[in-house]
Amino acid sequence: YSGGEPITAQVDSVSAWIKMDANNTDDGAILVQAVKTYQGSNGDSTVAVGEGYFTIPSATTTTYTQFAVPLNYPDPNAVPDHLVVVFTSSSIIGTQTADNSMKVDDVSYSYAGPNSIWQPLFSEKKLLVYPVPASTLVYFNLGANEDPSQYHLQISDLQGRLISEKQ
After folding, report:
1. Which of 2, 10, 31, 75 could lock 86 by a disulfide, CB 3.0 to 4.6 Å apart?
2. Buried b / exposed e across 65-80, counting CB within 10 Å, b at 16+?
3. Beta pairing class for 102-111 and 118-120
4. Quick one: pLDDT band at residue 46, thresholds 50, 70, 90?
5. What are the distances in angstroms from CA 108 to CA 40, 72, 118?
């Protein structure tokens, strides 16, 4: 449970746009856990207080498709302090095949309640892309503390076709 996105209340659901590689033989999955850290005399312990799981069918998700994973809370009064989201191109249940791949974009979450808005999951601004939408020219501005050699840029159109690729 190390890391995760700090949160202040129960998260209702997590949403993401996902595209599975056409050659995948396994279904993918999204696992979401809302966790609470308790401080004790023997150190900190972390407990999942809410969970959600969704299987992504590989055969039907070869273009970007939006998925939302609702979270269930056994204790309706539990207040988590972190959100952990795991994406996998092979289901965590059953057989896993090597070389499956998945592309994930625009991950966000919403708090429970009628006045909630979607929050981006990655709150640190490592990369700015503008203008959006764009027709002929797009700017990519990587944060000052980021090493460009550690990133691989792929640009796709709305149908998921690769337009450009660069280390």
Report:
1. 31
2. eebebebebeeeeeeb
3. antiparallel
4. confident
5. 32, 17, 6
Longest dimension (CA), the chain: 59
Please name the residue that has the structure tokens 């700015």: 128
Per-residue tokens: 73? 């809370």
Six token digits for residue 68 = 């939302």
pLDDT mean over 75-85: 92
Q: Is the pLDDT of residue 140 over 60?
A: yes
Of the pLDDT bands very low, low, confident and very high (cuts 50, 70, 90), residue 50 is very high
Chain-centre distance for alpha carbon 153: 18
Q: Tell me, what amino acid is at 137? A: L
Instruction: Confirm if 13 and 110 have CB atoms less than 8 A apart.
Output: yes
Scanning the structure block, which residue is given the tokens 């809302």?
A: 34
Q: Cα–Cα distance between 98 and 59 in angstroms, integer? A: 16
